Amino acid sequence: MKQRVIFCDFDGTITNNDNIVAIMKHFDPEGTEPIVKQIIARTMTVKEGVGAMFELLPTSRKEEIVRYAIDNATIRDGFAELLAYCREQDIRFLVTSGGIDFFVYPLLARFGIREEQIYCNASDFSGERIRIEWPHPCSEECDNYGGCGMCKTTIIRTYPTEQYERIMIGDSITDFPGAKLVDTVFARSHLIDLCEELKLNYYPFETFHDVIARLKELAPV
């Protein structure tokens, strides 16, 4: 029997809000708007855009930025229960996030999620400006080679389909390449439209209670 493994997005999925967007809106550094427009127009990759936006923020405001990100993030209902269900059923749970370690790690630590279960981008506060680092780059198999920042499809491919039943939980266009690889998708927001477009095997959800209920229905006998 294949082992189940869940690849779960963070911003807009585990959290109700997008933390990077919230940080930029709150601190509103000069120069953000042109970068956002380039990302939307796809003349700049998400990786390039996120890196460029954080470079607009001085490291002297580190404590303020970190505290704001942690204090203003809200966790989607049912998340603790999903983790308990995964432990009970021996489902491997991984966080695959385009978020940044300085808010992802502390927000997940309270749920007992270890750092080795989390794939996200890193931050360097040693200079005058915040520098984002990319410890999980694309493999050559990625269609968006070099542009992902944190490449979800590369992580998914390390869990071969012959051995694992692969499940993705996500909400946006950054989850779409991975959604095309896995066996089952739990989708909300923009990811629903993309899954509909390609007729992928997906289930809509609003809370993690919805995910748990469906996982129980789909559980191998």
Structure description:
InterPro entries: HAD-like_hydrolase_phosphatase, HAD-like_sf, HAD-SF_hydro_IB_MtnX, HAD_hydro_PyrdxlP_Pase-like, HAD_sf. The protein contains ten helices and seven strands. It has 221 residues and is an alpha/beta fold. The protein has a seven-stranded mixed sheet, with helices on both faces. It has a single domain (3-19, 72-218), classed as Rossmann fold, CATH 3.40.50.1000. It starts with a strand and ends with a helix. The chain is globular and about 55 Å long.
Key structural traits:
single chain, 221 residues, alpha/beta, Rossmann fold, 7-stranded mixed beta sheet
List the helices and strands and how they pair.
Blueprint lengths: L2 E6 L10 H9 L4 H9 L5 H9 L7 H11 L6 H11 L2 E9 H9 L8 E7 L6 E3 L18 H6 L6 E7 L5 H4 L4 E4 L2 H9 L3 E3 L3 H11 L3
Parallel strand pairs: 1-2, 1-5, 2-3, 5-6, 6-7
Antiparallel strand pairs: 3-4
Helix pairs in contact: 1-4, 2-3, 5-10
Uncertain spans, ≥5 residues at pLDDT below 50? Answer: none
Structural class designation? alpha/beta
**CATH fold name:** Rossmann fold
Helix content: 25-40%
Function: Dephosphorylates 2-hydroxy-3-keto-5-methylthiopentenyl-1-phosphate (HK-MTPenyl-1-P) yielding 1,2-dihydroxy-3-keto-5-methylthiopentene (DHK-MTPene).
Pfam families: HAD
Family: Belongs to the HAD-like hydrolase superfamily. MtnX family.
Protein name: 2-hydroxy-3-keto-5-methylthiopentenyl-1-phosphate phosphatase
